[in-house]
């Protein structure tokens, strides 16, 4: 029986299993489906220190309410009577201001920079083939108004030491000739990288197993036994476990699991979509964000992936075809693409979003042998390896590589 049980087989859980196994700790990872079966499969593949803003920010909620009835909008809240959603939105609105955003940016920046360094090490040391590229990315604008606002925002972000280069129309087309002729300019995000996410997670999972970790799929949690503020057993469809410590890294499903042990972990599942097509000859060479549409194109080996949108519609896997159509339309507006565009593979995934846009990383005051690592919103891949390393350090009672203030598990009571 393993000393440590990790719940969740995404990039965070697998990274934690790897770092624990590397330290010689007996660890088992379980997932209700399989490794990388959730958001670690079809996301945009970005490792992006230059995008260190949390989701809540000035004007975000008011803009979301304006888009409330537009199912093709970049930020869509499905109208429904859901007390958890109402409470979450009430908390969320308290962080939709510049001061809250500015407090969060350095924390997210440092997490992503630390992860980028770990990606370099892991990919090199474990020979993980995952189409890793350090070419940076582009934020492209189709409108003069959008470009003006984008350059103002880039100047603000540069105050935090981020490497951003403004580009006029000539400069951005010279850097990325596949951009649509209507692109007015943009921002070059110089320190960012990208990869094919599931290839990395699969490769790291294999490395963890070589180091002695046990990884079990089709192992859904049925319940917990607790005593004296400790988890004493975890009941699953693959048998029962009595671990010394538990790490909860189940993404959008973490809130429901935490509730079973009376831990309050407010999050909303934010649905995103992606479309992966065979990479055309005219593919961009780095990621391109369609600024006014909040979508992105990422080259991934022999594929080109379009991803985007943020949809608060509850914990469900339904695909809203209008949102898929909106991503296809955006791709046509920002890139020169072949006709006809292949249908490709359509994917949806749920990202866990806390009210303040920051992850939960740390020990719970409710359960002394529980470490929580979830709530990373759209930056789960970008912060995955460092979060896994932090989980390993917490479980082993070691000093953490980064400070965890702001990420407290019990900060909402």
Q: Largest beta sheet, briefly? A: 9 strands, mixed
What shape does the CA trace take?
Answer: globular
**pLDDT below 50 for ≥5 consecutive residues: which ranges?**
none
Provide the structure class: alpha/beta
The number of helical runs is: 11
Number of strands: 20
Beta content comes to 15-25%
Q: Summarize the amount of helix as a percent range.
A: 25-40%
What is the straight-line distance between the termini?
A: 33 Å
User: How large is the radius of gyration?
Assistant: 21 Å
Query: What is the mean predicted local confidence, pLDDT?
Result: 94
Task: Please give a structural write-up.
This protein has 413 residues and is of the alpha/beta class. Helix content is 31%, strand content 25%. It has 11 helices and 20 strands. Strands 4, 5, 6, 7, 14, 15, 16, 17 and 18 form a 9-stranded mixed sheet that branches. A hairpin with a 2-residue loop joins β10 (221-227) and β11. α1 (11-22) crosses α11 and α5 packs across α11 (384-395). The radius of gyration is 21 Å and the shape is globular. The mean pLDDT is 94.
